[in-house]
């Protein structure tokens, strides 16, 4: 959460005076979604600092109280009110074709440009407003699939957030046990890959000298991480998550470590979906670790495969046997057909857009990593069984190859793989 500071207190008092002036101070003065649209129009047109703060504050506080149905109405109202007026633009274009001139061309450009970005920026008139605006976009994303008319509004949010949260405004923090309690609580809350049951488990991931967490923060969201990665320093490449998370996992001197393992990456703010953060984070963390521990040679992940089981169950042409309970995940007896299938799935199976079907694979390959190996019985709990029959993958970040791997991915969707993975994938009979 954003802390109270003298400047925030001052801006808050300005907003209060502005609300009093506008007659919107009382909490009993409820505003409908249509009334909220009118207040948005006032915010767009106002020039006064106090009245602008007041309108922005009232819009955000009122929006937070809307039901899901009311939020849908509000978003559709924004599209109608602040979107491109196509009929007006068509008329101006007809006039321009008859008599081209610079003034008409400028009018066409102005009328064809939606005002969403201006509205979003004016809502963010004080630091405490940034998080509610992120939540607003997260709500919009939930409605997008059933309401494609909202897509232009979402595009505007994405464009604005890409500017607000570009690398220049992000602060990399190494999070240790001495970090503020609010940050540590948020790490527990936002962990999306391997859930943290409580403080004792968090301590095992952060207190040992060979364990750490890195996160990106924004100056308007002091205790709210945007994205974080959990790192283990080891002397070998791990092939199972228990090697890292077990209560009995031995602690080593980090100066003797040769391998940095990124075993969990969590995006914390749903409203930032589509805004590039992970790429910057991985590269920055690798750079920091190299400086701290010169003996590190390998930078590798131990990653879940979240879509594999869903895909296997659609393969009616294959008689693939797969484990149905955690007890069947015996590390000593891997299933060759499944291992071949998962190697092919990660390296060759693509979406209609030509990108890897598995989002974790797409993330790491898109960042320039190489699919290094797949590991049987690596994630032996119910979620591991449900997602990938307990199989996990290692993606290796080879510093001198990152840019080339990334370029191949961007150009034609190529998934760079190790010889081991290629050999397995070739054995899979499609």
Task: Tell me about this structure.
Helix 2 runs parallel beside helix 4. Strand 2 and strand 3 form a beta hairpin. The model has no long low-confidence stretch (mean pLDDT 90). The chain contains 19 helices and seven strands. A five-stranded mixed beta sheet has the order 1-2-3-4-5, sandwiched between helices. The protein folds into two domains: 159 residues, Up-down Bundle (Butyryl-CoA Dehydrogenase, subunit A, domain 3), CATH 1.20.140; 260 residues, Aminopeptidase (3-Layer(aba) Sandwich). The longest helix is centred in the first third of the chain and has 17 residues. It is an alpha+beta fold.
Tags for this model:
430 residues, alpha+beta, Aminopeptidase, five-stranded mixed β-sheet, two-stranded antiparallel ribbon, globular
CATH class of the largest domain: Alpha Beta
What order do the helices and strands follow? HHHHHHHHHEHHEEHEHEHHHEHEHH
The level of helicity is 40-55%
The chain-level structural class is: alpha+beta
Distance between the termini: 51 Å
Report the CATH topology name of the largest domain. Answer: Aminopeptidase
Shape: globular
Q: Per DSSP, what share of the residues sits in E-state strands of 2 or more residues?
A: 5-15%
How many domain modules?
2
What is the level-2 CATH architecture name of the largest domain?
3-Layer(aba) Sandwich
Radius of gyration equals 26 Å
Number of strands: 7
Q: Given the structure, what is the number of helices?
A: 19
* Largest sheet geometry: 5 strands, mixed
Q: Uncertain regions: pLDDT < 50 for 5+ in a row?
A: none
- Reading side by side through the largest sheet, how are the strands ordered? 1-2-3-4-5
Q: Provide the residue-averaged pLDDT.
A: 90
**CATH superfamily grouping of the largest domain:** Malonyl-CoA decarboxylase, catalytic domain
């Amino acid at each position: 959460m954003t802390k109270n500071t003298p400047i925030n207190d001052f801006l808050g008092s300005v907003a209060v005076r502005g609300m009093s002036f506008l007659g919107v101070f009382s909490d009993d003065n409820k505003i409908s979604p249509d009334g909220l649209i009118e207040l948005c129009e006032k915010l767009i047109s106002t020039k006064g600092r106090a009245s602008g703060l007041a309108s922005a504050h009232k819009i955000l506080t009122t929006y937070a109280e809307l039901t899901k149905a009311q939020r849908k109405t509000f978003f559709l109202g924004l599209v109608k009110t602040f979107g491109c007026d196509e009929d007006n633009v068509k008329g101006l274009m007809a006039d321009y074709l008859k008599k081209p001139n610079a003034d008409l061309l400028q009018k066409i450009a102005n009328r064809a440009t939606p005002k969403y970005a201006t509205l979003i920026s004016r809502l963010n008139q004080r630091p405490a407003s940034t998080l509610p605006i992120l939540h607003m976009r997260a709500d919009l994303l939930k409605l997008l699939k059933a309401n494609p008319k909202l897509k232009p509004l979402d595009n505007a949010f994405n464009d604005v957030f890409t500017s607000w949260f570009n690398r220049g405004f992000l602060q990399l923090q190494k999070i240790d046990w001495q970090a503020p309690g609010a940050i540590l609580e948020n790490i527990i809350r936002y962990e999306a890959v391997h859930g943290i049951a409580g403080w004792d488990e968090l301590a095992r991931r952060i207190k040992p000298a060979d364990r750490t967490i890195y996160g990106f923060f924004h100056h308007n969201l002091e205790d709210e991480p945007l994205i974080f990665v959990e790192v283990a320093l080891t002397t070998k490449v791990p092939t199972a998550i228990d090697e890292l998370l077990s209560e009995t996992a031995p602690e080593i001197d980090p100066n003797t470590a040769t391998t940095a393992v990124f075993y969990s990456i969590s995006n914390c703010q749903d409203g930032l979906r589509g805004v590039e953060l992970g790429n910057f984070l991985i590269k920055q963390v690798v750079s920091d670790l190299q400086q701290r521990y010169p003996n590190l040679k390998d930078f590798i992940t131990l990653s879940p495969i979240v879509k594999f089981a869903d895909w296997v169950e659609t393969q009616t042409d294959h008689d693939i046997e797969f484990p149905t309970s955690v007890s069947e995940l015996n590390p000593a007896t891997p299933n060759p057909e499944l291992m071949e299938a998962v190697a092919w799935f990660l390296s060759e199976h693509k979406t209609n857009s030509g990108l890897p079907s598995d989002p974790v694979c797409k993330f790491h390959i898109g960042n320039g990593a190489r699919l290094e190996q797949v590991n049987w019985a690596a994630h032996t709990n119910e979620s591991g069984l449900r997602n990938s029959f307990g199989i996990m993958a290692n993606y290796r970040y080879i510093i001198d190859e990152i840019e080339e791997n990334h370029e191949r991915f961007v150009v034609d969707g190529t998934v760079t793989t190790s010889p081991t993975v290629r050999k397995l994938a070739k054995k899979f009979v499609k």
